[in-house]
Records
---
Amino acid sequence: MTAWSSLAVAATGEADVPRLERFEPRTRATVRYADPAAWITATAVANALSVSGVLRSASSHEIGMVVVSDDGPAASMAEINAATSSGFSSPLRYAASNPGSLVGVSCIAFGLRGPTINLTMLPADGISVALRLCEGWLNRGVARWMVVATFSVNRLEGKCSRALLLGCQNLIGGVGKPLTQSAADWLVSPGME
Amino acid sequence: MRILVTGMAWVTALGDDLESVWQALLAGRSGLRPVPFSGRLRNQLAAPAMAGDESPSERLVRMACQTIQRALQAAGHEPEDPGVQLVFGTSLGTFLDDEISRRSLSGWAQAVARKLGSPSAPIVVSTACSSGADAIMIGAELIRSGATKCCVCGGADVLTDSKRLGHSALGTMSPTQLRAFDIRHDGTLLGEGAGCMVLEHETSGQNVQAIYRGGGSANDATGMTIADMTGLSAGYAMRRSFADADVPSSAIGLINAHGSGTPMSDTTECAAFASVFPESIRPVVFATKGNFGHTLGATGAIEAIALVLAMNAGRVPPIYGLEQPVQGFSLPLAASKSFSCDARIGLSLTLGFGGFDTSLIFEAVS
C-alpha cells in the first residue's frame, strides 16, 4: 500500500510552453511579468482545472497547491544576475526570480487560497513528500482539492510541467480514479513513457 | 499525537548563542549597521550575521550546518543519525548571484547534508519569507504521517548584492529604519541568519523545550509581491493553525508577528489579527525584524524560536523602533521595553512573496 492510498486523481494537465491566452486579462495584468517556468506550470494547472470543472463546484479557499521543481525560474534568476553586475535591478524580474512564483502565478490566476508549498527538489526526490502533504491536508479537511505539479527542464525534451488534481477518495463522491504509483511516476518523468 | 521541540539553534546578527541573543532581544538591541555597497541603494543598513572572507554560498552552508549541529546536539542526536530527516528552506539563497547554485535549487541543502554526514536526502523548501516556517510545518507533517520520528527543520539565508538591490528597486527597503507597526513605518531592512528546530514524535523526544501544536498555510492569490491587505488569507492561515492545534483563538496569549516594517505587510497583519481575534481576546504582539533585519528564508524559523524563548522565559522583548503604534491596530503591541507575560500558547505568523502565509502554534513547557 502506498502512503497516499486514500487519494484520487480527478484530472491531469500538462504543458511544455506557456499559453498566456488561457489566462484572463486580469491575471496577466496582475502578474505583469513571470518567468516562463511559472507560466508553463500555470498552463499545466489550467489544463487540469478546466478538465475537472472544480472551479465551478469548490470555493477557491478549498483548493491548495504543491509544486516540486529543482529548476525554478532560472531565466529570471540569470537576468537579475546580469543586471546586478551593472548596478541595476528590475523589480518585475526580481519578483519573477522567486522560486515560489511557480506556485504564486497559478494561485493568482485561479484565486487558490488553500495551503501552498514549493519544494525546490528534483521531482523524483520530492514527489513523495508533496503527496504526503496533500494527503494530510485532504484527509483532515484543510483543503478539498490539492493540485500537485512538477516543473523540470530536460536536456532532450525541454521544459515540461505536469499537474494532478487530487481529492480524498471518500470525500469527492466517486469523481476520479485512485492515485496509483504510475500516476505519481507520470508526474516525475516527462518524456520517459 | 504530540510533536515535541527538543532542540533549537540560530545564527543571527546579534550572535549565535540562544541565551545571549535572547538577552540582547530583551535589551532592545539591533544588529542593523551600515554595510558597504558599491552601487546605489535606498539604505546601506543591513544585519550581517557572520564575518569572514567566505563567499555567500559558503556562508549559507556554514550557517545552516552550524544551527543544525547545535540544535541536534541540544536534542541529543547526531547529524549522522539515519533517523533524523533534514527539512530546510531558503528564499533566494545565492541563486541570483552564483550561477552554479541555480543549476540545482536543492544543491545548497545537499551540500549541507554532505558536510554534516547526514545519510538522508534533504527535503528542501523555498516559499520566500515563509520558507523557515514552512520547513517546520512540513517536518511536523512528516512526523504525523509516520514517515519519520525526528526532523531537524528550519531556514537559512544570506545577504547578497542582488537581494539588496532587488528590495531597493522594489521600494520595499526602508530609506530610514525598520519600524514595524510604527506610524513612521516605511519599509524593511535585510539581514541574514539561520534558525532551526528539532521536532520529534512524543515517544522519542527528550529535553523538551516546547510542544509544536499545529500549523496552517494559505496563499494570498493577490500579486507577485503584493499582499492581500484585507488580511483574508493571513486569517485563513491562522484559523487553519487553530484547527490543526485544536485550540480556540482565545488560547493564544502571545504572537510573534511578521512585522517586516513595510506599510503593506503591517496593514495586512493589522487586518488579519482584527478578523481573527475578537475584541475580548487580546494576545500581545511582538516582532524581531528590527533586531535581526529581515532574514528572508530564515525568518520564520528564527521567529518561531524567539516565540518559544519568550513563552518559556515569561518575558516579551520590545519591538525595536516602535514608538507610536499605527492607528487601528487591535492588539497590544510590545513597545519600549521588555515586560513579563504568562502566555502558555503562542503563534508565529509569516508572510512571503508569492502569497505564502504560514502560521505556527507552540505551547510552552516550562
Note: Residues 3-201 of chain B form a domain with the Peroxisomal Thiolase; Chain A, domain 1 fold (CATH 3.40.47.10).
---
Amino acid sequence: MAHKGLSEPHVLLASSNPQRLMKNLVGILATPQLKKIDVAVCEEAKLLYQLGNDHYIFAKSLDATEWRQKISRFYYAAYNVKRAVSLRNDGSFSTESKDHQTVDVLPPTLRNHSTYSGRLRNLREDRNLADYSHIAKERDLVISVENAGILLEEFMADAKVFLVSKGVAL
Amino acid sequence: MIMKTQLGPIQSIIKEVSKGFDNISPDYVLKDRPDGQFIIFQFAAANERIHGVVENALGHVDAGNPFKDRVAVNNRDKKPANVVNLPETKMLQKELSESLTVDRNTFGDNFTSRYTASVTDYETNIVGNANYIVYGRRGSGKSSLLAYAMHHAIDRNQPFSWIALQAYNKRTDLNAVAGILSDIFSELSEYDNTKTDLSSVAAKFLEISEGSAGSLPKKIDRLLPRARKAMAGIASRKAPVTIFLDDIHAIATSLQPKLLSVIYSLTRGNFSYIKASGIEQFTNIWDSATREGLEPPHDAQLLKLDHNMTMPDRSKKHILSILDAHAHYCGLPGIDYLADDEVLSRLVLVAAAVPRDALSLFSQAITKASIKSQKAVTITAINAAASEVVEEKLKEIGRDSGDADQDEIRDLLERIREFCVRKKSTNAFLVRIDSRSADYRTVQKLIALRFVHILHEGITPHKVAERYVALMLDFGFYIGIRAAKSVELFPDTPRLLAAKELRKLPVFNSSDSKGVQRAAKNLSARKMG
C-alpha cells in the first residue's frame, strides 16, 4: 500500500485504514499504545484541515477577476477539509485522483451534511470547468465565486466542530 | 402491446426529485455550459432539508444517468413578482393542511426539530413528574404540548401510553372506562419485561369492557390492585410511566372524573403520571359530590393555553414563528415572503390568535389568492377564507358540546351577532361575570367553540365587585371579501389592549337582547303563518 507524497515510516502507510488497524489491534496492543496511533491520526487530520485552510486563505486573497484561480483554490480547500473529516470519521484516506469522486461522501453526523454533499459535488464540476475549459466564462459557474467563498466559510466551520468533537486539536 | 414510455435522463431526475417533494415539482432551469448542461433546481431559500430531499432523490437515479452529478440546488437570483403560484408555496399549503391535526405521529422523527414552543413556555412544566391537565380550545396547541412530552419520554426510553379519546366520543358508560384501561395496558405491554402481566391485564379489561353493565364497577375495582402491580413492574424513578389522554372532553363530562379517578388509583405513588388535554368548558376533572377525579392543584396542575387574544402581540409572534417554521421547511425564507405584515396582522385577528385556525386560514387564503390571480396573499384573501371557516365552526357545535346544548348555543350566538353587528356596530363587547346566569354559562361554551374570544378575563368598568369579561365576536361573522365597513374592528391590530379602551366597550345584556330575539322569532312565525 502506497500513498503519493508519503514515505515510510508514516502512520497512514501502516495500514489501508488506520481506524481498522486500531480496531484489530485491540487485545494485542495496550490501550496507551493504541492511543498513540489515534493521536497520530488526529495530527494527520489536523494537517489536512490546515492544508484546506491554506488554500482557502489564498483563494480569498486573490483578486475578484481571477475567478478561475479562486474557484480552483476554493475547491481544493473544500477537498482537503473533506479528507480531514473522512480520515477522522472512518479512517478513509487516499491520494489517488479518483478520490475526488468521493468529495460528496460525508458523515451524516456532520452538521448540514446534505447541503455540503451536493454543493461540494457542484464545486468539483466548477473547478474542472475553471481549470480545463478554455472557453468557459465566469457566468458558466453553478456556484458563483462569492457563494463559493460563503460555502467554504460555512463548511470549514461545521467541519471544525466535527473534528474537534472527534479529538482533533484545531 | 403497450410500450412503456422511457423517460429521458433529465425527466428521470425531475421525476425522482418531485417524488421527494410529494409530487410537487420544484422550479428548475437547464444551464448550458461548455462541458454540457446542468439541472439547477431553484428555491427561494434552500436549506439542509431541501438539499437532503434532492440528495436522497439522486440516490435513486441510475448510475448511468449523465446528469446524476450535474444537479444543483440554488436560491433564485431575485424574488418573483408572483409568489402565490411558486412550487414552494404549494408545498407550504400541503404542509399546513397536513399539520392541522396533531397527534402522536405528527412530524414523525422530526417532531423535536419542527416543534414550536408554546407562548407560555409550558414545555418545561409538561415534562415534569406530576399530573397535568392541558386546557385549550380546538387548535390552541393542546395535543402538540402532549406530543412534546411524549417525544421527551421517547428520547429517554420512558414507557408511556397515548390514548386518543375521540374513539370513545360521547360515551357515558363504564364499559368505556374498562375499554380505555385495556388500551392503556395494551400499549404499556410493549415495554413488558416478562416479569409483569400487562398483556393479560389488558385482555382482562377488554373482556370487562364487552360485558354487561350491572357488575362492571366491582369487576373494574377488583382488577385494579393487579393492574397497579403490573404497572409498577415497568415504572421506576428513572423511567416513570406516562399516561397521555388526548381530548378527554370527548367522553361525557359525567364519565371524565370517574376515568381519571380509576387511572389515578393506578398511578399514584407508582412512579406513573397522567397528562391529559381537553377543552376546559367541556371538561370536568373533579366531581366534588362524589370526590372522584383529580382535584387541582394538589392532584393535578392546570396548564391553560387559551390566552390568545388577551396578549395579542405575543400571540402574533407565536403564530408567525409557527408559520415561519413551516415556510423554512418548504424552502421559503419566512412567511413574510408571501404576505406583508399588515396581512399577517389581519390573519392573527381573524384567527383570534388560535394557532391552528391561523394555519388553516392561511392555507385557504393561498387558494383564494391564486384563484383571484393575486401575486401575494392579501387581506382580501384572508377575509374571504375567514367567512368560510366560520361555517366550518358552526358545523362543529354538536361535536364538542352536548346535543342538548346546541339550541341555546345557536340562540345566544344569534343574539350576540344582532347586538354587535346591527345594534352597536362593533365586534367587541362586555359580559358580566355571573356563574349563576344561564347566558353567562352559554357564553363560556361560545368561547370554547371559538365563536367569541376573550380580550380580557375580568375588568370592573362600572362598580367595584361587578366584573365583566371583554369579548370579541369572531371575524367570520362580519367580514366577507372585505371587513364590513359599518363594524368598528377592535382591536384593529394584534397589540396590547389598554384597560381604558376595554372599559368603553358596550355591555351585552342578555335580557335586553331576548326582546330582540323574541321579536325576530315572532316575525319569523308570522311569515311562516
Note: The domain at 120-306 of chain B is CATH 3.40.50.300 (Rossmann fold).
---
Amino acid sequence: MIDAMTLLWSNPTRKRIEGMRPKLYRMAYAWCHDAHLADDLTQEALTKALGRISQLRESEAVGVWLFTILNNCWRDHLRARRAFSDVDELDEVIFDPRPGPDGDCERRQTCQQVRAAIAALPLAQRQVITLVDIEEMSYADVARILDVPVGTVMSRLSRARQALKSRLLAQESDARRSQIRRIK
Amino acid sequence: MKDHYSRERLNAFIDGELTGDERLEFLRQMEHDPELKAEACGLRSLKEMVKGSYQAVSPPGHGRSSGRDWNTLRQAIAAMLFLACGLIGGWLANERYHRPPGFDRLVGLPEGYRPVALTRQIDPDKLVLHVDTSDQAVFERALGLAESLLAHDPQRRRVEIVVHSGGLDMLRADVTPYSDRINRLAQQHTNVAFVACGNTVARYQREGKQVVLLPEARLVASAVGEIIHRLQQGWVYIKV
C-alpha cells in the first residue's frame, strides 16, 4: 500500500526535486565557493534525495528536506577532506576564503567583495547567513536543516552579519584611501 | 542602539521573525531612536547585498545569467499579459463572466479605480495595490488608498503595496519623501505590507545604484510573481 502511494505521488515530487537543482547549486556554491565542488555536492544530494524519495513525508517541505541532505553531503565532504572529528569545530574553521572565479560577477566589484566577505566567515556562520538571506528560510527551518537550536541560528546570524559589515566597511575605506592616493 | 534591543532581535526584525506585537513595538521604538533605525536600514541593505551577490550563480549547463534574465523577462511579460487580460476581460469589464460574490463590497475604495480579480472566489478584504512608476503623485495616491481601505474594518482588512521599476523609489530610504508616513501606517496597522521587487533591486545594483530600503519594506524575488500569487489566493488587485 505504501509503495502504491509512493508511486502515486513520486512523479510530481521527483520533478519538484529535480527542479530544485539551481537552488541547491547556488547554496552549495555559497558554502564552498568552488564551482566543481558545488556541482558534485548538488548531484550527490539530488541522487541521495531521489533514492530516499519514499522517506519524504507528504507534509514535509521539500526545500527543507533537500537542504538537509545537501548539508549532510557537505559535512561528509569536509570530514573526508579535513578529517573533522567533531562537526562543531566547523563553527571555528575558515574554509578556503577565496571565492572562485565567476564570469558574470567578475565585473561587479561589490558582488565579489560580498562573496569574499562571506567566504571569510566561519563555515557555520556562512551556512546560516546564506540560508536566511539567499533562500529566505525561516530561523526554524534553518535550525532543522543544520540540526541546531533556533537560538544558535540567531547568534550565528548576528555574528555573521556583524563580521560581514565590519569587513565590507573596511574594504570600502581601503578603496577610498587608494582612490585618494591615486588622485594625489 | 538601546540596550534592550539586542542585535539578535534586530536581525529577527529584519528577517520578519518577530510576532505582530513585537514588530509593532520595534517600529515604535525605531521612531524615537534614529541610531536603531539606521542600524536596521544598514542590516537590510546587507541582507539584500548577500542575496544579490549569488543571484547570478547557476549550475553548469543551466545557462549564464543572460539566459536567465531572458527567462525572467519572458515570465514577467507572460504575467503582465495575464494581468492585462484580467484587467480587460476580467470580472468587472466583461459581462460574460459572473461577478464574484463580494466584489460590490469593496468599501473604502474611491471612485475611479478598477479592481480586478482572477479567481471566482475572492476575499474583498484582501487587496494588493500595484505601483510601478516613480511619479510621486502615484505614491501619494497609493498611500492615501491604503489609509482609506484600512480605515474600514481594520481588523479584517489586509493591504499590500507592491512596488517595482520606478515604484521602488517609494520604499528607498534615501529617496522617498514618505518614510514617516509609511512608518506611521505600519505602526497603526499590522496588516499592511510594503513589498519591494528583488528583480528591480538587482537591476539597480547592476547599474551601480545603491539600494537601501526602508525597514518596513519586505523584499520578494519578483513583484509580478507576488501579485500573481496574491491573485491566485483570491486577493483583489488594484493598479494605482
Note: Residues 150-183 of chain A form the longest helix (34 residues).
